[in-house]
Amino acid sequence: METVREMIKTGHKNGSAVDSMVMEINCYKLSENRSFRDAARPALEAVLDIAFAEGGGSKNAVLSALKAQLSRWQPLLAKVLGFGDVAEERHAATCLEALAPAEPGHARALLADPAIFAVVLQLLYGADILSGEGILAWGEAAAPELRAAAPVAQLLDFLEQSDSESDEDSD
């Protein structure tokens, strides 16, 4: 599904409408007899690569660029990452975890920092691309060292409290 990554990057470069890109990816997935789940990692990778390239390596600039790209690509990412389906969102967060490179010189090296990773999860949550339930489901199965890192643990605690408060309000 590398084609999905290239479609998004080309769409970004050409200024294509996001709705058109959703249709194009949907048609491609159907022609390949694949699911949106198969497109989750390449879609995330494309948007991250765009943001990291625009941010130039500075944490604040990368996060600002990522926030802008998530806003632009929200309809596509919500569809491809399965917003509203906890199992699909958990898979998407696992894909995000796998996209954090081990080598320090990589363009997405900042993603390996648990503080940055937690902010990226928070941005995905704030943009209605991943739900709190999806992130919490990921947290239950995440790599223990990442889950236990203070910024990630704080985000998971916040989401658990929010989820508990929502449950209490609905009673």
Describe the structure.
By secondary structure, the protein is mostly helical. It is 77% helix and 0% strand. The termini are far apart. The mean pLDDT is 93.
List the helices and strands and how they pair.
Blueprint: H1 2-14, H2 18-31, H3 36-55, H4 59-80, H5 86-98, H6 114-126, H7 132-141, H8 144-148, H9 150-170
Helix pairs in contact: 1-2, 1-3, 2-4, 3-4, 3-5, 4-6, 5-7, 6-9, 7-9
Instruction: Label the overall shape.
Output: globular
Order of helices and strands: HHHHHHHHH
Number-wise, the strands total 0
**What would the average pLDDT be, to the nearest integer?**
93
Strand content: under 5%
Distance between the termini: 44 Å
Largest sheet: none
Helix/strand/pairing class, anyone?
Answer: mainly alpha
Keywords, separated by commas or semicolons:
mainly alpha; globular
Quick overview of this protein structure:
With 171 residues, the protein is mainly alpha-helical. It has helices spanning 2-14, 18-31, 36-55, 59-80, 86-98, 114-126, 132-141, 144-148, 150-170.
